[in-house]
């Protein structure tokens, strides 16, 4: 039983280390250090259960490690590209908010009043962040500082452009703010359309990644359940090392397939949104 526990411990350690090395966009100040969400904890528990099941079936510590890693990573490879969908929704929401600000400003309201008035009707993908911005304005925070916090929360290139225009307007350089917001909203919608076309062209790559990954997993599961004798050489120490190497090669291939099927995020405009304006 100790080799199984050792394999599960190694799997959990690698999962935690990989999560710590994964780059994330900055979050809100109150949640910036809350790295593990309930979804992450659930995934970790399911991965541990998958590793335990693989260990019980094979009695191999490396099987526990590879099984836990597969259960942790494969749903993101085989599942829908939620990050892309979230990015598209955020871009559309930023465009709609820019138009709301433009229309509210045309009624002769000031910028701070426009932000406060549009917060309750801002599209849902960015409503929480815009509501926090409006609350900071009501609490007396300097508008440029509150806008920088918004850029940090959203971590989006299109939002950076809107924040830059609003920051310049707050610094009494906003004579053309309405025209700028109109142009930025149009740019955001064009960017969303471009990303959608790119995602459509990469759909075939994602489908191929799902087919290759699913076939590989099904083949390994079939060998374990139906032809254990073929896998007997892997029960030795040398076999375990070879199995670890083969698993690492497969993991690298799966990662490459997933990486090539994703739509890359363009670089941000405000590389240090929390810094001085």
TrEMBL record:
Residues 98-223 form the Type II secretion system protein GspF domain. One of its GO terms (cellular component) is plasma membrane. The keyword Transmembrane helix applies. It is a multi-pass membrane protein. Keywords: Cell membrane, Membrane, Transmembrane, Transmembrane helix. Gene3D superfamilies: Type II secretion system (T2SS), domain F. InterPro entries: T2SS_GspF_dom, T2SS_GspF_sf. It is found in: Cell membrane. This is Type II secretion protein F. It comes from Micromonospora craterilacus.
